[in-house]
Batch of 4 targets.
Target 1
Amino acid sequence: MTKNSVLPVYSVSGNNFEIGFEIGKRFRLQIADFLEKSKRLKLLRTVEKKTPRLQKWMEYGERWFPQYMEEIRGIAEGSISSLTDILLINCKYDFPRKACTTVIFKESGRMILAHNEDNTKDNLNDCQLLKVYPEAGTPFMSFCYPGMIPGNSFAFNAYGMIITNNAMPTPDIRMGCPRHFIDRSQLEGKNVKEVIKRTLFRQRASGGSFNVVSQKEKEAMNIETTSERYCITEVVDKYLHTNHYVSEEMSSLEKRKSLLRSSISRYKVGSRLLSDVKEKTPQTALDILSSLEAKPYSIMRIDKRMRVRTLFTALFDVSCDGITLKVYEPNPKIQEEDVFIESALDDLI
């Protein structure tokens, strides 16, 4: 079911270059619009001029994930965009960011993973939801930002692996493989063990917070990483994550207040709301993610004073019978029936 929305749904297939080319060609106008207005890209261009590192990132990408470099080249050619700009956008997660809130509920026979996808207003109207059928690889569905290869944000694959990501203030960023290549690699994982192995790729340049649910294995977990450290937390009941390290092993890591004011506020409010949960239902998860408490640093980020806002809310309902993804536009009173995009695992296989 798809209502009129700023998030189009599109299918692509072929080899890696062909997938990228189709994405670039189909969303050429959106990519051009984003590259023109993106303040973040302008900042990345400036940083690259002062401290060149793109060539090294390309070398790391070619060495370990040449297939994803082909997708990036395809996007640049298909959208008739600067390859340098497309590369910079795909490396943006290796700079400190502050976005997204995730909630997980787990009980016998059912898991719910709900996620607010937060980003700058520059991205409005230019994102897409993609069904991807690689010639050699795992079919998957993923939210996708303009100019970027699929992965990151929220996604699931044909093996029933669901992944959402939260940006993190990695304190030990280094030269290595850009994190977004790892995001893309996670979508090839057939089970929890494989996703963990891909997440902990040793040559990663930076880290993140990765929420993983396996439909077949009935497991849910969070993986916090820096470029060198990690912590895996099994979810057995209720869980919430924003954009700072919260596990016992990692919570002592850097907490710059200027960067994390919003994250800490959302985490405090979300944790309290989570502790009050009596019934672990989809609507309860949506209620948490639509909270406007503690504005302008609320969980649902729709305050006009803030540059970063909630773009979409994704809700995965997981059971032995399958997976259902519902996507909502930001609303402080989201109801389950407000879904404007609905997809199921059966639609992908």
Target 2
Amino acid sequence: MQDHRLKHEFMTTLNLITKEDLDAFKRELFEQLGKLNINIGQSQNKKWLRSAEVRILLNISPGTLQNLRINGTLPFRKVGSILYYSYADISKLLGSEERL
């Protein structure tokens, strides 16, 4: 009985990562990255993007996006309570960052 309890305690405290675990993680990671690339590709076909799409495209936080709006770096339009950004303006912003 003592051996069984020790074995159970050992197995619950020991968390081994197997090759199969890593393979499953890799597949899931690549699947998620593929979805992200599809979403970004779809954004390029749009003329206007919402805040969440812009944050993903630029890889920035909500606060950084707000700062870009406040200081006039990234123009936006507000329709009701939704903010929209021109894809052309985002492309210009990315182009100016690449030259820095």
Target 3
Amino acid sequence: MTAAGVRLAAAEVRAAAERIRGPVRRTPLLSADGLLGPSGPSGLLLKAEHLQRGGSFKARGAANAMLGRAARAVVAGSSGNHGIAVAALARRTGAEATVVMAAGAGRAKADAIRALGARVLAVEGGVAARDLLARQLAAGTGALLVPSSDDEHVVAGQGTVALEILEDEPDLDVLFVPVGGGGLLAGSCLAADLAGRPLRIIGVEPRQTRRYAVSVAAGRPVELPASRTVADGLRGQRPGEVIFPIVQRRVDELIAVDDEEVLAAMELLNRAGVPAEPSGSVALAGALQYGVRGRTAVVVSGGNSPNALAAMRAAGSATAPLVPSPAAFSRPSSLSVLPSPSTLSKESL
């Protein structure tokens, strides 16, 4: 049953999985027992969203929000990865795309968005100012607004990450999720309702931007000042209105990691052959701090990794792959694909 104030349910995640089949890849679940050395804990799994189109899970929410909704123009506010996903899908559908980016956003990501044919607008201030301008542009021009997180379609699309994890590993005990805008966390909370056993959902925030932890403790959404962190994709200031009640109802724990812990996790991933960026390494940093207890999965992504951006710039036509393809990365020797149970579908999204 859906809690009061929560408009979404797990069924929306299943519907999203069908809707985005094709433009979005089903990514593998990797066994990473050797990632921390021979004496490291067993049972560690990586959801390899660095192999997703555009290098991050953001393609899922953008696809679910845009597919089936005829729009000649779209507007999005983004730190980079969501903008890349929106620009790539707009190119696929023939829509004009405008992406608003806040001060401090990575130049490489802005270049990748432009390379896909989208217009990039920069705004002074933080994420709140960015999202305000995106809303104003959409309202003034009639374009479709595709929020980076706080949207029912986006949340349901991001939830397909956890849905795939549960299909590949039904005995999962703990799932660590990086927390920026909160769409992936809320979607994971919804998907967890489909688990046939107890499953702990742990959100991991940069210590400088603990808006969900602060807000859950306060019992209401709290807006924090703009901040800086090495995980530049996770700098949101206020919990989403769609997202907050879902997280408040279902998340088991919200923990914080320092920039040094994020960079250490990123180094581990890159040594293992996973071209992760800081934002895509936060969940692993949280798992290393918290401890691997039973079958534990973390969501990792690449986003602005050099390989992903180079492939994005090389994609010169609408028929070219929406980067990166799995072949762009060599499979690390310390990681192996976890086979899906034979009773589950192996079809790719």
Target 4
Amino acid sequence: MSASASRWFYLLLVVPFVGTLYVPWYDRVQPTFLGFPFFYWYQLAWVPVTVLLTGIVYRLYADADKSGKAGS
């Protein structure tokens, strides 16, 4: 397996970036959640999603590094 093929999980780090990159996707007030306009709660929802995805990438990298599949 090549080094680039063993690093597919790095693409997970792109998901939050793409999800918040194009503001017109979420530049609106409705629907509100607990009184927060969509614009704010959408962005705040990405915080735990980003933490989760970063943790997954870290774990996959650490596991791949232990088995010798990820290079430096």
